[in-house]
């Protein structure tokens, strides 16, 4: 795989008492999942890629575009990245339409001359047509997350970061939004870096998996090669393979997705 088809990152630093030394290459296409136990640094990697955190030393490049190296650090607002957080963080004073348009760079509806060309497609894909005039306080958790995804996509990102976007939802809301994530996987050509500790989500979405231990990358590869190394209850255990039953559960979850 050539550099032009990779997301390449290497970050070394500390966040409080947590030290990390991450290095990974991921395909610049499809969905790459970061999987590991809570506190291992999954969100730290996303924040460093987005430019929200600046590690003591680091390298970050998507294809031939370098965002960080020893001589440069491109600030977050100049990186063409969409970011979907665990909590949607929508603007409470704006309607659904206003939140979406903000993602497209529209700061004043009064000055709006024409709608962004991809707005209608994203609204239709995420089934937001009936919600456009609604205030975000009147949305369900799943609806708010769909709006957050739409807002991120309307930035026209070169890379989409998703930090446990379903973890704050109950099972019913997860089941509501997971098909939309699967649709994104099929329909958009933006590489997605997806953080989760839920094997069902990863089995349904991921093409490539990066396994993490606290502060470091342990192993990475295509989903088909990594499924046997995942355990939803205990995370990744670098010195053990999974029992046959757990490996079977991983394969079953993938086939159902």
From TrEMBL:
Q: Which GO terms describe its molecular function?
A: ABC-type transporter activity; ATP binding; ATP hydrolysis activity; molybdate ion transmembrane transporter activity
**Start and end residues of each stretch annotated as Disordered:** 234-257
Q: Which residues form the ABC transporter domain?
A: 1-239
Database matches in Gene3D superfamilies: P-loop containing nucleotide triphosphate hydrolases
Kindly state which keywords UniProt assigns to this record, in alphabetical order. Answer: ATP-binding, Nucleotide-binding
Q: Which InterPro entries match?
A: AAA+_ATPase, ABC_transporter-like_ATP-bd, ABC_transporter-like_CS, ModC_ABC_ATP-bd, Molybdenum_import_ModC, P-loop_NTPase
Instruction: Give the Pfam families listed for this entry.
Output: ABC_tran
SMART domains recorded: AAA
> Transmembrane stretches, by residue range?
none
Supply one GO CC term from the record: membrane
Q: What is this protein called?
A: Molybdenum ABC transporter ATP-binding protein
* The organism of origin for this protein: Gluconacetobacter diazotrophicus (Acetobacter diazotrophicus)
> What is the taxonomic lineage of the source species?
Bacteria, Pseudomonadati, Pseudomonadota, Alphaproteobacteria, Acetobacterales
The encoding gene? modC
């Amino acid at each position: 795989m050539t550099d032009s088809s990779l997301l390449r990152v290497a970050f070394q630093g500390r966040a409080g008492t947590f030290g990390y030394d991450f290095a990974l290459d991921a395909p610049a296409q499809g969905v790459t999942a970061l999987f590991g136990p809570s506190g291992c640094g999954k969100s730290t990697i996303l924040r460093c890629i987005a430019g929200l955190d600046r590690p003591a030393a680091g390298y970050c490049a998507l294809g031939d575009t370098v965002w960080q190296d020893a001589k440069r650090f491109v600030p977050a607002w100049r990186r063409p990245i969409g970011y979907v957080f665990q909590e949607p963080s929508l603007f409470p004073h704006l309607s659904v339409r206003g939140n979406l348009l903000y993602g497209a760079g529209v700061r004043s509806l009064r000055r709006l001359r024409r709608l962004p060309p991809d707005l209608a497609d994203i609204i239709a894909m995420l089934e937001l047509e009936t919600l456009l005039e609604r205030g975000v306080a009147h949305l369900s958790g799943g609806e708010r997350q769909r709006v957050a995804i739409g807002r991120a996509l309307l930035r026209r990102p070169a890379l989409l970061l998703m930090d446990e976007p379903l973890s704050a939802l109950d099972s019913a809301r997860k089941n509501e939004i997971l098909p939309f994530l699967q649709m994104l996987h099929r329909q958009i050509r933006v590489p997605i870096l997806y953080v989760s500790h839920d094997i069902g989500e990863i089995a349904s979405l991921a093409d490539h998996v990066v396994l993490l231990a606290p502060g470091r990358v342990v192993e990475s590869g295509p989903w088909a090669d990594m499924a046997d190394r995942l355990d939803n209850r205990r995370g990744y255990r670098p010195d053990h393979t999974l029992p046959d039953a757990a490996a079977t559960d991983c394969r079953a979850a993938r086939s159902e997705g």
